[in-house]
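Students often ask what a 'structure token' actually looks like in practice. Rather than answer in the abstract, let us consider Ketosynthase family 3 (KS3) domain-containing protein, a protein of 78 residues. Its sequence is given first.
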Amino acid sequence: NLSQFFDVRGPSVVVDTACSSALVGMNMAIQALRGGDIQSAIVGGVSLLSSDASHRLFDRRGILSKHSSFHVFDERAD
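Now compare that with the structural description of the same chain:
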């Protein structure tokens, strides 16, 4: 895990809540900072469609971009 690789001390947590994992992880870090449990935090997130079945399901439901580009919160978003 990254915390061991970089020799970072303190809690190391994996969050899997589908599309909201990064947001939930960020909220957990903010709460720990506010509560004085930690002095700093590193939070990261990634979304990965690791199977053809997931990709086909998302495509059928119109969740995927038709242009293979991302313009989150932009008028070009599709």
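One point worth highlighting: Residues 2-60 form one domain. Ask yourself how you might have guessed this from the sequence alone, and why that guess would often be unreliable.
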